[in-house]
């Protein structure tokens, strides 16, 4: 029986998955391995009758530049008692390649320990994937899929901004980003949006609905002072991960949670929630401004990867083979801007239940601070002029809302 390389994908889609799968398949097929793709991630790996793809070169060659994933994905998180060696032994598996974000990597870390404990001759290498860009890669290198998703988001946000200018009104956008605001920051800075709200901005104060609404209104009032009657506000859905249960209850939202303990945010419109809160507050201020909600979500996850990610994914796929040939296991494969491959061992991030802490936006970095300074919001010098519109201009000062004074 030929030695086998098995590939699975966990979590949600990200542009470039197929480029990784294709590259891994091609380089190992050329070296005489059988390559099996496993549908439904870890659920398929540990099931009695997994659905498989037996790769050949032509199949791999057809998929490398496509969006989505040729392997059906799953957020299934196996319990320790779900682990078994059935698939590994039956198929003579020598390498398990997992493709995913922090949750998938955390489970890969647990599987590495299991393989060692069972003394199975199976290596495990993880390829970092997430449009959230929140895996702690060295030198803050991007996860694959991030730049392609950002590019898709920029295209939509630019169109919405053009609509705001054309119709002279406001839009409230919400974008994906489970616990980190990288995607929102990238889109907002690229599109010159006047207001951005991400979880990392609340590093010195508790995130509340009132503060988010005040930030939105701060931008609208600032532009009103500037004679600009339009704009776009971009909010990261990650705020729902830092809101207290009491704050979420105020919105009347009944959140559900996935097997990894994360709130499921895909079954309601975050932009609509924030837009309604904004409209209610503007009515209280007797300010007549139209705003419309737009969610930037699933349309970003399965777009065709741009050249950057196609190159990165190809390098990472070849990097899997390089690390495997060097006898390395239990790691994340990384590539720096020079294309140099290095392992980042999962054990370095070992915590309870295999959880890997996400990489957040460095809010105090020069890049983040420059982007934030380019936003439109109420500052100290605006108080006198703003008093013409409202009675309490102080509550809409950007720095005071965030306790950045």
Concise summary:
With 405 residues, the chain is an alpha/beta fold. The protein has 15 helices and eleven strands.
Description:
The protein is an alpha/beta fold and 405 residues long. The protein folds into two domains: 4-145 and 305-354, Rossmann fold, CATH 3.40.50.450; 149-301 and 375-401, Phosphofructokinase domain (Rossmann fold), CATH 3.40.50.460. The protein is 39% helix and 15% strand. The strands form two sheets. It has a seven-stranded mixed beta sheet, sandwiched between helices. It has a four-stranded parallel beta sheet with strand order 7-8-6-9, sandwiched between helices. A hairpin with a 5-residue loop joins strand 10 (331-335) and strand 11 (341-345).
Question: Topology of this structure?
Answer:
Blueprint: E1 4-9, H1 17-30, E2 34-38, H2 41-45, E3 52-54, H3 57-63, H4 86-90, E4 93-100, H5 102-117, E5 123-128, H6 146-167, E6 170-175, H7 182-191, E7 195-197, H8 209-225, E8 231-236, H9 239-242, H10 245-250, H11 270-284, E9 291-296, H12 307-325, E10 331-335, E11 341-345, H13 366-373, H14 383-386, H15 398-401
Parallel strand pairs: 1-2, 1-4, 4-5, 5-10, 6-8, 6-9, 7-8
Antiparallel strand pairs: 2-3, 10-11
Helix pairs in contact: 1-3, 1-12, 6-7, 8-11
